[in-house]
Every structure is written in C-alpha cells, then in structure tokens.
C-alpha cells in the first residue's frame, strides 16, 4: 500500500511563521556533503546556487536530498528565468525557487505563471513521473501544487529597483531577494556593494516590500551591513557561502602558519 506523504513547509510558510529575521548561506561548491554540513549549521536557509556555481540538475537533486534531513529550508536559484528550466527544477523536488534578474512586473508575472499548472499558469504537467509529487504520493498534488511551491524573485538592476514596489505587489511573488553586487554594478559602482548609495537602494526595496506585505531579503556577507539591513526590516539575510568561508579560513591558516606575503593580492570580498 503506498505511503501518503505530507509536504514540508515552503520558504513562504517559514517567512510567515518567523518571529525574527531568518539567516542563511549559499551552497556554491556543488557538493551534497558540503550542502549537508551547511544545513546542519543551525542557520535557517541553505541557498543552492544554480546560476554562478558549477552545478546541474543532478547535483541540485543530490543537494536537496542531503538537506532534506535538516530543519534548514532549501532555496534553489535557477540560472535564468526560463519556464523549461523552472519546470525541471520543480519536478526534481525544488519547492522553493529563486529567479535572478527580474526587472519588471511583466517578467515577475511570467515567472508566477511558469511555476503554476494550468489554468493558473503554464507549468508542464509531469508530476506522476517526478519527485515533486513524490511520484503521486502527495495527495491531490496537482490541485495543491501552487500552495506547495514558493517563488522568490531577485532585484539586481536599476530597472528592477525602479519597479520594486510594483514587483512586490505581484500576486504569486512570495518574496524578494536584493542582489547588491549586481545592483552596484548596474549603478556604476562595480565591486562596491557597501557603497552608501547601494545600501540606500537596498533599503528602498525593503521599504517597498514591507508596504506591499512581501518579505525582502538581501545578500550581506559583512556582519555590520547585515545588522543594518535587519534593523531596516529585512525578513532574511544571506550572510555567507561555503566557498567564501573555505577561502577566507584557508587564507587565515596560511597567514597564521606561513605568514603574510606582501606581494600577494588582497582577497576580494563578495
């Protein structure tokens, strides 16, 4: 007799239930083992990055399986807001999707349609073959799928910044993530994500989201900047990544035991 499964809470559910800002980190190494270590850290979110990391569908699936045993909620960033790619990520069991580079309302609305079955959207129907429904072991999956998936869109450009209030008001957009690195580049401030103008722009998006009732998060690997965004009302903050933690910690070991090399370039901060 088949087992009927209860779906886990979505990222949107977690945000609604939270009585504090949530904190998370990026999983960029492409390793299920590293993703599992991150998931057991005590942080709230593990963000599996399919945009800037050397990973594909099989790696994302393995990381989702590794993270599933832990309380941390997995959020998967697609490489692009393409309905076919979003369909594949949903079918392999990614409940919580992050779409990068969303610049306006029409694009946000298209992403909402891409993650919902007809008549609410255009997601292709293949759940009986897919992990998303646990191969039809989640009762009424097709009818309930739009409630079992969360969509976060990323604002990373001046165009997205100008449309932030309208994007936040789109029905079906569950959360926003601001990407200060690309936003800084779009503002002509490449590599200066802590520039006052960039910080002020991030805070503008946070205010727009709060006015619309849509949670806004942000990347902030600098603790002081992360604290500032939380004070400004950020609902969640990504405060580190597996690869940057390893890079900085290994550099610290080299400095401690070998010493500084004055000719070596200073490590870049994210």
- Side-by-side strand order of the widest sheet: 1-2-3-4-5-6-7-8
Number of strands: 8
Give the structural class.
Answer: alpha/beta
Cα-to-Cα separation, first versus last residue: 51 Å
Radius of gyration: 19 Å
* Integer average pLDDT: 94
What composes the largest sheet?
8 strands, parallel, barrel
Based on the coordinates given, report the CATH architecture.
Alpha-Beta Barrel
Unreliable spans: none
How would you describe the overall organization of this protein?
The chain is an alpha/beta fold. The protein has one domain: Alpha-Beta Barrel (TIM Barrel), CATH 3.20.20.60. Helix content is 40%, strand content 15%. The chain contains twelve helices and eight strands. It has an eight-stranded parallel β-barrel, surrounded by nine helices. Helix 3 links the parallel strand 2 and strand 3. Helix 2 runs parallel beside helix 3. The radius of gyration is 19 Å and the shape is globular.
Structure described in brief:
This protein is of the alpha/beta class and 270 residues long.
């Amino acid at each position: 007799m088949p087992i009927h499964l209860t779906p886990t809470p979505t990222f949107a559910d977690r945000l609604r239930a939270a009585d504090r800002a949530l904190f998370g980190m990026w999983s960029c190494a492409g390793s299920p083992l590293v993703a599992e270590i991150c998931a057991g850290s005590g942080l709230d979110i593990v963000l599996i990055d399919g945009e800037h990391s050397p990973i594909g569908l099989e790696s994302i699936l393995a990381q989702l399986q590794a993270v599933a045993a832990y309380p941390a909620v997995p959020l998967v960033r697609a490489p692009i807001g393409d309905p076919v790619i979003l369909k594949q990520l949903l079918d392999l069991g990614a409940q919580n999707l992050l779409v990068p580079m969303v610049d306006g309302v029409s694009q946000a609305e298209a992403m909402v349609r891409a993650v919902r079955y007809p008549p609410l959207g255009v997601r292709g129907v293949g759940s009986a073959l897919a992990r998303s429904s646990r191969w039809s072991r989640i009762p009424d999956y097709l009818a309930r799928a739009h409630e079992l998936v969360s969509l976060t869109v990323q604002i990373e450009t001046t165009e997205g910044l100008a449309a932030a209030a309208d994007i936040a008001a789109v029905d079906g957009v569950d959360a926003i993530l601001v990407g200060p690195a690309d936003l800084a580049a779009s503002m002509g401030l490449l590599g200066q994500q802590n520039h006052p103008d960039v910080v002020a722009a991030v805070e503008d998006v946070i205010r727009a989201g709060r006015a619309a009732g849509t949670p806004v998060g942000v990347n902030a690997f600098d603790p002081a900047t992360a604290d500032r965004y939380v004070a400004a009302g950020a609902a969640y903050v990504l405060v580190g990544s597996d690869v940057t933690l390893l890079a900085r910690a290994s550099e610290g070991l080299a400095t401690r035991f070998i010493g500084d090399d004055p000719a070596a370039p200073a490590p870049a901060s994210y």
